[in-house]
Design brief:
With 296 residues, the chain is α/β, with parallel strands linked by helices. It has one domain (2-150, 165-294): 3-Layer(aba) Sandwich (Rossmann fold). It is built from ten helices and nine strands. The strands form two sheets. Strands 2-6-7-8-9 form a five-stranded mixed beta sheet, sandwiched between helices. Strand 4 and strand 5 (85-93) form a beta hairpin. The longest helix is centred in the N-terminal third of the chain and has 14 residues, at 18-31. The protein is globular, with a radius of gyration of 20 Å. The mean pLDDT is 86. Magnesium ion binds next to helix 1. Residues 12, 14-20, 62-63, 65-66, 95-96, 127, 199-200, 202-203, 241-243, 246-248 line the site of guanosine-5'-triphosphate (GTP).
């Protein structure tokens, strides 16, 4: 039997759905509820943390935010159903603040560096409500730009100049920077697959848009960076609702409805290119593992 040891890292800014994904993943890999999904072979880390977030998830409570400095490693050996392939998946559940801090100070920690040295794939999280966009250049803004260029645009006293705030830079710029950080380090060349997870897909699915098309529209810089750097990073975009519904807005009613679903894994909604919606939240991990299996 082939035993590969691929490691995959979850990255994403604050509150982008990383911990909720982990809780839903735990349900799927331990329950046998989803045909064809990866299953848990062994948990190599303390189960207390993952059990805790899983309990919240099962009871349709939003998981707690991961505090800064809380470096939770969840190390699972997952296998395909026929046992023909096993892979070790280490999913460090890092606080999104760590990534924001990296963006601000332009450094990452030694432990983060060690982790990336061992990883071959990234799960890059984008949350539709947390994405801060660029102002698009419309015909109106185009006119304004030419007025400014001519020097004919006058500023009124009421117009205040805003101080530059690095944390207000649009999310896609921060994510591209994160990928460029990795691409700039030759010793991370083996980290060459990126599964983009558009989380909270329940907020988007009624639009009937494909995840890649959504990324093109909402985060064009990131989509374009990935397209232009296909040789450095292969990528796929997945729309995933790990929670199954919007607990923040729909609250108790949504929780009640989720609790009625007999197989808890069926709360999960996964949308990937060319396939109908399904519940296999291990799909992006299978794709990331595939690169490892195909490595010469
Ligand atoms: N509607 C909806 N909301 C979701 C989903 N997954 C996560 N959320 C919400 O998104 C917010 C952030 O989720 P977390 O899983 O805590 O995100 P995180 O990336 O771990 O956040 P940090 O630990 O703070 O970095 C919470 O309010 C969740 O309830 C989903 O599938 N659907
Ligand atoms: Mg978290």
């Amino acid at each position: 039997m082939t035993v590969s040891a691929s490691k995959h890292v979850m990255v994403g800014l604050q509150e982008t759905g990383k911990t909720t994904f982990l809780a839903a993943l735990w349900q799927v890999v331990t329950s046998n509820e989803v045909p064809g999904a990866l299953r848990l072979v062994k948990l190599d880390s303390d189960s207390e943390y993952v059990d805790g977030v899983h309990q919240d998830w099962l009871q349709s409570r939003p998981v707690e935010r991961t505090p800064m400095g809380n470096y939770q490693f969840v190390s699972m050996k997952l296998g395909t159903v026929d046992n023909s392939h096993l892979a070790e998946v280490i999913v460090p559940d890092l606080s999104g603040e760590l990534f924001s801090e990296q963006w601000q100070v332009r450094k990452w920690t030694a432990s983060h560096d060690r982790l990336l040295r061992e990883a071959s794939g990234l799960l890059l999280f984008v949350h539709p409500r947390q994405i801060s966009r660029f102002e698009m250049i419309t015909s109106d803004t185009g006119e304004l730009v030419s007025l400014i260029a001519d020097g004919t645009e006058e500023t009124t006293e009421e117009e205040e100049l805003l101080e530059f705030d690095i944390l207000k830079v649009p999310t896609p710029v921060q994510l591209v920077d994160l990928l460029q950080f990795i691409a700039g380090k030759h010793y991370l060349n083996h980290l060459n697959r990126v599964a983009v997870i558009v989380s909270a897909w329940d907020l988007i699915r009624t639009e009937e848009i494909a995840p890649q098309a959504w990324l093109n529209r909402e985060a064009p810089l990131l989509a374009q960076y990935l397209r232009a750097n296909e040789i450095r990073f292969q990528h796929r975009v997945y729309g995933i609702s790990a929670q199954g519904a919007d607990l923040a807005v729909e609250g108790a009613a949504a929780a009640l409805e989720l609790n009625l679903i007999t197989k808890a894994s069926e709360r999960i909604i996964v949308r990937e290119c060319g396939l109908a919606e399904h519940h296999d939240i291990t799909a992006p991990l299978k794709w990331l593992m595939d690169a490892e299996r195909n490595r010469p």
